Amino acid sequence: MAAEAAQRPLPAARYVPLAPAAACALLAACTPEQSVLHPASADAAAIARLFWIMLAGAVVIWLLVFGAAIYATLGRSRPQGERAADHVILFGGVVFPTLTLGALLAFGLTLLPDWAAGEAPDLRVHVHAEQYWWRVRYELPGGLPPVEAANEVVLPAGATVDFHLTSPDVIHSFWIPPLGGKMDAIPGRENVLRLRPLREGVYRGVCAEFCGAGHAFMAFRAEVLAPEAFAAWMARQAAPAAGDATAFLAAGCGACHRVRGIVAQGNVGPDLTHIGARASIAGILPNTDAAMRDWLRNPQAVKPDARMPGYAALPAPELEAILAFMRGLK
Ligand code: CUA
User: Fold this and answer.
1) Which atom of ligand 1 lies closest to the CA of 215?
2) Is the N end or the C end of the chain the one with fewer CB atoms within 10 Å?
3) What is the whole-number distance in angstroms between the Cα of residue 151 and the centre of ligand 1?
């Protein structure tokens, strides 16, 4: 009996052959649109290169340390003299770390952004991190009024873009992993993050600083378009909205939300001028009738602590009229 039990594989050992499949499943979850290892800008490529170099260095050093440990444990060599030990400590503890870290520092310094020349950006985007959404205001050339959107950032490929980041209340952090490093949005000051997106595509940005109950849902979409497509998008965004806003205004939505061409005030919540044409609602829901209805009825169920009040108590015809108006804001 005992011998039979000894031959039976351990329960956990049975799953070892499944490990490669499990690893593949885990790696498949690493989607390129939010991955620093799939860079789509020069800055992100530099960060990715630094990561791979540091990883390779760490693997080599790990092998050296473990090799030394195995040699020391299993080796049958004679004990070394004090002089030899001093040499090992001098080389392994002083010379090698000084050279390696010095080289890493020198390489890291070459990666620092070189905007000291004061080169003007092609596009300035003012980002206000709110609880828990992103107000995105594009500066237009030629004295045109700025265009405001929310929870999505659209950029022209090949352009130098300066993001001016701030926040009215708590600290957030603006991060589009495939496009570059992250930077904090801090109340009372303005930080500038320069990005140069190169590859067209859709990426996912996140808030990278814990800011409250809705933090994990404070995502946004970043899309890089060809310059002509970007100009066309901007022209559509700059146009005023049209539609029957009766129900929207009767419910008081205009107290918080601006809809250019219809409601001029409303600075508390996102600008809704072209919400029907956005890719998402609140940055995380698909832009569908059902998702927008759910959001209007109970925003806190989607984003905990969202400041938008729920309108579940509104009679269905009114709610549907608001929905139809918003869906029509293309
Ligand atoms: Cu905003 Cu975390």
Assistant:
1) 2
2) N
3) 13
- Which residue's CA is the closest to the ligand 1 atom numbered 1? 172
Sequence-ordered alpha helix ranges (H) in the chain: 2-7, 19-28, 42-74, 82-90, 96-110, 227-238, 246-250, 289-297, 299-302, 316-327
Q: Which amino acid would we find at residue 95?
A: V
> SS3 of 65, please?
helix
Q: Kindly report, residue by residue over 144-202, the tens digit of the pLDDT.
A: 889 999 999 999 999 999 999 999 999 999 999 999 999 999 999 999 999 999 999 99
CA of 297 to the centre of ligand 1 (A): 23
Whole-angstrom Cα distance, residue 201 to residue 268?
31
* Residue pLDDT, tens place only, 239-294: 998 888 899 999 999 999 999 998 878 889 999 999 999 989 898 999 999 999 99
Whether residue 211 has its Cβ less than 6 Å from ligand 1: yes
Rounded distance between C-alpha atoms, residue 126 and residue 11, angstroms? 56
Q: Distance between CA atoms of 125 and 22, rounded to whole angstroms?
A: 42
